[in-house]
Design goal:
This protein is mainly alpha-helical. It has ten helices and no strands.
């Protein structure tokens, strides 16, 4: 692989990773509503999912799946169901919070830091990140295009290892940074003040992703 191909691949992957999507939404939502630890574990689940897609791309499995319409449609449907479920849960949370505030059921002092009461275990957070990544067929199509256009099956083992390290390293740095930034106390405090509205927004975004999967 030549230097210009390496640079093109790096630029494309950085652009793809930092563009907000389902993975970004999962990490930010968890870091804001749960804890920094949970956000980091969601990021680790996404990183694992990325590694699975990279390996599938390297050995050609992802390309085969993308060429089987029924199988790809089933993956897309399952992804849409998962995203819609996540959106529904967020809308439920928003509705409960609106009702609580309208009824003034919870004292203001109780709203200072409710995140620890509903925090995810590392296993739950990791599973959320992994499922979010693997249930999104757009991620698989992205890696199919990457390996079809830049890393053919005939590439050397050294090139494949370097590509894997570069892709996973970039993904790791970005989503770990997202989890750390959005779990900052001042950012979470701002979120808390607008929690029902933000939960409603997150819910709409998740459902929007589901609709996009079904209609694409």
């Amino acid at each position: 692989m030549t230097l210009d191909i390496w640079l093109s691949l790096a630029l494309i992957h950085i652009t793809a990773v930092v563009t907000p999507g389902a993975n970004f939404l999962a990490v930010t939502q968890t870091a804001l509503t749960r804890s920094r630890r949970a956000g980091v574990w969601v990021a680790r689940g996404i990183i694992t999912g990325s590694l699975i897609h990279v390996i599938a791309g390297l050995i050609g499995v992802a390309g085969i799946i993308s060429r089987i319409p029924a199988l790809f449609a089933a993956i897309r449907l399952l992804g849409a169901v998962y995203f819609a479920y996540a959106g529904f849960k967020m809308l439920q949370a928003a509705y409960r919070e609106f009702r609580q505030r309208e009824a003034k059921a919870a004292p203001q002092a109780d709203l200072t830091d409710p995140f620890q009461l509903t925090d995810l275990t590392p296993a739950q957070a990791y599973r959320r990140g992994l499922l979010t990544h693997l249930s999104n067929p757009a991620s698989m199509l992205y890696y199919v295009s990457v390996f079809t256009g830049f890393v053919p099956l005939t590439a050397s083992l050294g090139d494949k290892v370097l590509v894997t390290v570069g892709l996973i390293g970039t993904t790791t740095v970005w989503y770990s940074l997202v989890a750390l930034v959005f779990s900052q106390a001042n950012i979470r405090h701002f979120y808390l003040r607008l929690m029902p509205y933000m939960n409603a927004l997150f819910g709409i975004l998740w459902i929007g992703l589901a609709v996009k999967l079904i209609s694409s």
